[in-house]
Amino acid sequence: MSLTRRNLMETGGIGAALLAMGASCSKPDQKASNELAALDGVETASRIKSGEISAEEAVEAAIERAERINPEINAIVQKTFRRARNEASAATGPWAGVPTFVKDLDDVTGVGTAFGSRAFPGYRGKEQVPLINKFLGLGVVSLGKSTTPEFGLSATTEPLSTGQTRNPWNTDYSTGGSSGGAAALVASGVVPIAHASDGGGSIRIPASCCGNVGLKVSRGRNPTARPDDVVGPIRLSVHGAQTRTVRDTAAIAAALAVPDNGLEPLPLVTSPTEQRLRIGFTTLGLGGLRPDSEVDAATRNVAAQCEALGHMVEEIELPIAKGLSEDFSLYWAAFANSAVSYWERSTHLPRNGMAFEPFTLGLAEYFETHMGEFEGAIHRLQGVEGDMNRFHENFDVVLSPVVTTPPPEIGYLDGGLDFETTLDRLTKYVQYTALYNITGAPSISLPLSMSKNNLPIGSMFSANLGHEARLLSLAYQLEEAMPWAGRRPPLYG
Fold first, then answer.
1. Distance (Å) of CA 8 to CA 12, 78, 360, 487
2. Closest listed residue to residue 435, CA positions, set 454, 461, 416, 415
3. Per the structure, how many domains does the chain have?
4. C-alpha angle with apex 399: 181 to 236, nearest 5 degrees?
5. What are the transmembrane regions (predicted)?
6. Which is the catalytic residue, given 2, 33, 89, 103?
């Protein structure tokens, strides 16, 4: 999720659209399109730069794949194909011509933003936030907006506004959320990379569900329009991308990083680690829950692989106080209340089920009911960073599950269910990711395992604030030791 009152309704970017050059190219056949689908973003950019393929060809092939695959996965909320064709010939920058999508929580100048909701029909932001400026400034060509749950509030992408986004590994299952559309478009080979954001696990959870690489960078690593979130002092959300390779994730993270932010510099990481890392692994979640047997076994297998690679691995318990999950839920509910309250002030209408989903309304009501506990929750959440800093004096990296189960079936986390059922199911499912939004530390999901039903199971590695490079070099090592490049979902390319 990437949600503040400002970026919900008032943000966007500064520039006008690139000049349309009017270049046209013949549509690729499916075989040619599939061959390009196999390339990651770095390779696509390299071939465009060398002249082996043109930006127009790369974009046209991605459009062909989108038209063919999206009816099965429903991951695109708005197509801007004509605009993309015009922009391809004018694209400049290190990633010039690489096709992508922007998550539908952020404005792109001249393109509508729906926030996964029925509440703001016809809304178009006046300008882009600095992050979107920088992302599109790399030269990538956006083909449109990818689906997201209402205001990015859920861990599945099944909004009432656009319908269920489906997992390309098995369309009966969820893509995760809130960057679920982005994850499905990358996993299915429609595009090599797609913009994503993470306020409670929204990059890492879809990456786990769809078999992608998903990095949540450190707080402060991204360009940002505001120094803090509107609902309180803890800025949860950062931006990044869904990718299929570690090198794409590393390249995007380095390209989007801002200098002079008080963090360790983030260089372009290009090779496996040579360090012997101290890795603590745990399967115990924030609410004291354990994962199901498949996820538990996958995590322990990855821990054993890390030990075989020469790292020091020890099973640990994190220094997490009881009640942290409830405190985070209240902070999360404040975002829902902020969105709903903004709508009420803008429309002069009372909140209602025609505009908002039951889960969103339930979260808003939950916040208002427990508002008296909000200050204490903030205080406790702020204390977690210090506890984890002390923990990291003894451990370089934490290994854990991303979520407690493999991807759930479509409908299990549907926001149209009653609020109590949805909140209970979400809380039990999302037990690990939010910790690193609270502390601001970096965290990455890697597609290292598969379930008995042939669905991806991600493993999450997390480090102390500013140490993305440590995670990325470890990710390269695991990509070599437990390769996933040969795995393809049934709906691919």
1. 10, 18, 15, 37
2. 461
3. 1
4. 50
5. none
6. 103
Locus of tokens 């924030």: 286
Which is catalytic among the residues 202, 325, 329, 459?
202
- Is residue 473 among the annotated active site residues? no
Per DSSP bridges, beta strands 194-198 and 238-243 are antiparallel
pLDDT in tens, 165-176: 999 999 999 999
Is the pLDDT confidence value at 24 over 80?
Answer: no
**Is 202 marked active-site?**
yes
Give me Rg for the CA atoms of the chain. 21
Report if residue 493 sits inside a domain.
no
Task: Give domain status of residue 487, yes or no.
Answer: no
Q: Is residue 491 part of a domain?
A: no
User: Do residues 103 and 7 touch, judged by C-beta distance below 8 A?
Assistant: no
Q: How far is CA 452 from CA 230, 295, 406, in A?
A: 43, 11, 10
Q: At what angle do helices 293-308 and 468-481 cross, to 10 degrees?
A: 90
Q: CA 279, CA 391: separation in Å to the nearest integer?
A: 11
Two structure tokens written together for 138: 């790399």
pLDDT value of position 299: 98
322 is catalytic: no
Over residues 94-118, mean pLDDT: 97
Catalytic member of 174, 178, 443, 459:
178
Q: What is the pLDDT of residue 33?
A: 76
